[in-house]
Amino acid sequence: MDLTLIDNTPSPNKIISSLGNQVTVYFETSINLDPKKKFAIEVVSADIMYCMPNVDQTNNTLSYITADNVTHVMTFEIGLYYYQDINYQIALFCQESANGGDASLIQFEPDEGTSKMYVYFDSAHISIDCTPATSIMNMLGFPPSMGTIGNLSSPGYVKSVNMANLNSIHNILIKANCTQGSYHNSQTSNIISVVTPNVDSFSVIQHRPLHLIPCSLRYNNLDYITITLTDQNDDDVDMGTQNGTLAPQLWSVQFVIVEIK
């Protein structure tokens, strides 16, 4: 068959999920394949905006105590952050006189050899509380079990006990409701392709497989098709909607239907 393009832009005969990661397209003319033959889908290309947040309502606060024993709580916007982005947001918050008056008060730096993080304190007797349920510290390698860290007698640092986990999306799974026979670990699945993010945040991942892999169709008559993007854990990915409140970033998948000889 000819090349088919599915994307998440609004149009007639299409249903898009609130997260923007699932699209159901109803064909104006049903696809009717020879019932005596077997067919498969092959993904030719995919273009996906790398925008899946690693900071949301579950891990978007930083609670720190200044030398005057005042607790300050910073809240991050939902988004996709690298440690430099986190440092920038903290500097903007801490430079305010009410929040410490020092843009360099708290900074994070990675240990490239171990994937752990250092948190540097620019002044004495500054501490961070790692225990709040919504703390960003756990993602940075400082679990709640570390309690309150810092409160050093002079400027210095504390090293995390765990590796940082800023890259929550390791793979994006492209799934189609009409396929069968692929496996996700030991479980049967309807995965038709796997995309690995290899670009900076809010850049387009361009997936161009060198070898097309056929995924068997379950039906020879198709009235509609549903394409879903999930992460490596089979959880729906948020295409930059902030849990459905914003318009999703764009993605598209191109595929062909081929006969299995």
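(the above was protein one; protein two follows)
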Amino acid sequence: MFRWSVGSVLGGVALAVIVLNWQYPVRYAISGKAGSAVPLVGGLLGAVACLILPAASGLRGYWWLPLIIDVGCAGALPLSLLASVVRRLRRRF
């Protein structure tokens, strides 16, 4: 029962953070207003929730999915790393 409770709470918080993270790129695409997502939090909480839940839930094997779905993990993090590398390369040359 404890694993279900903790896993469900973590999963709910992760879902809320992931949904809120997705509002920023959607808002930017629609209106051009920039925002800021919370990187890694939603994806990591979702992954931990999937690992904590009992095997009977069937979610344990999908621990990687929240990391892909969260724009703060799969979208913004690689793009920000790429932008950082490009900026450093431009400074050199």
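Reviewer note on protein two: Residues 2-92 form one domain.
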